[in-house]
Amino acid sequence: MPAWRSISLWMDQLGEDLTPRPSLEHDLDVDVVIIGAGYTGLWTAYYLKRHAPGLSIAIVEAQTAGFGASGRNGGWLMGNLLGEDRLLAGLSVEQRRQSFDLLHGIPDEVKNVIDREGIDCDYRKGGGLYCAARYPEQEASLRRYLASLYSEGLNESDYRWLSPAELAEQIRVAKPYGGIFTPHIATLHPAKLVRGLARAVERMGVQIYEQSPVTEWHAGFARTAVAQVRSRWVVPAVEGYANTLAPLGRYQLPVQSLIVATEPLSQVTWNEIGLSQGQAFSESSRQVTYGQRTADNRLVFGARGGYQFGGRLRENFDLSSDEIELRRYLFSELFPQLKNVEISHAWGGNLGMSRRFQPHMLCDHQQGIALAGGYGGEGVGASHLGGRTLADLILQRDTLEVRQPWVLTAGGLGALKAWEPEPCRWLGYNAIIRSFVYEDKTLANPHSPPWRRQFASRMAGFMEGFMH
């Protein structure tokens, strides 16, 4: 059996047998075949069965449920989408409010499901904290972000400014300049959720085949090395592994995010840090950091990883000492008392990034193809919305979910924007990331002269603009 427990802290903590389900050994005829037993595939199957119990559905998984990002992520269940400001820009005030309400409702709808299905995944809706906590420029950046949210029709019930004193009531960092609090985020144990979902859909009658990598797919079928599934609908739910299923790799690239977890910390230490309600937190830099206090009192902390030439998957997530120490440096900037803490787990995963840097949910009724992806590292919540939406699209249900600007119902795969060829992608990605690193090092140094600080921020902002 593969060493699936070593994938992440989350998989290591599962108190269950990880013996794989049987592989696909014979041809099948079903109504829906789903490629991938991660969040997107499982949520799609769940809502299809909720609304149309008579459908025959098979899920074909290359490894085991939770092998991909669903078993490796940082455990943020967010009520928003990457790039939502651009996606919602053309809507009326009323439509925008409806869309925001739909997004903000994601954590509560997930809670409804886990309660209904008896999935214990350490769900805690403590909200999210975006902290200006390392250098003063972060405060100005966050205040601009808050102003942009308010300009979109949101208000203090959605996002509100915290003074340093108010921030300290929830999280105590070394250099508090303030922050933003939103109630629309929960934290959870991602591997318990994905494994629980797999069991839930099996109880509903969905067939799951593991260790059965799909080698080819087209409208009407998916094929493994030993069998094929014929189906009215094909749902490739592979997110960060899109390059394993041509031609999806043209539209969605794998990038990596890397995470560390400390040993369980004492109550004394947590009294110094805070985070007593299961809050998610991030410090506001372009390094894209994220963290949470786990149910067993560890600090889980991640930051942006990398991109491999040609959009290759990263297979080996044994983090190097430099990768681990960068994350230690970043979290110890916030919590100096953790500078020498023992790190018990270090891992990473591949996530999917679309060329428009925003998610998509696509349905082609003529071809019988439906897919969702491009979550850009925010997939725990976005995949739930994706699964709900794909189920409604397939069943032609007229719901608020299917009337959103991220839903594409014309043009098939051609509605997605393709990535540029190499070496443009690799050169562009590395130029952008180096500008972010330079900015962070410059601003984190209190002795950097004002002209250098301004130059670093302007250059990083200019480079970030290329991402959109």
From TrEMBL:
Record-level Gene Ontology MF annotations: oxidoreductase activity
Pfam families: DAO
Protein keywords: Oxidoreductase
Domain FAD dependent oxidoreductase, first and last residues per copy: 31-393
GO CC, alphabetical: cytoplasm
InterPro entries, sorted: FAD-dep_OxRdtase (IPR006076), FAD/NAD-bd_sf (IPR036188)
Protein name, per record: FAD-dependent oxidoreductase
Organism: Pseudomonas fragi
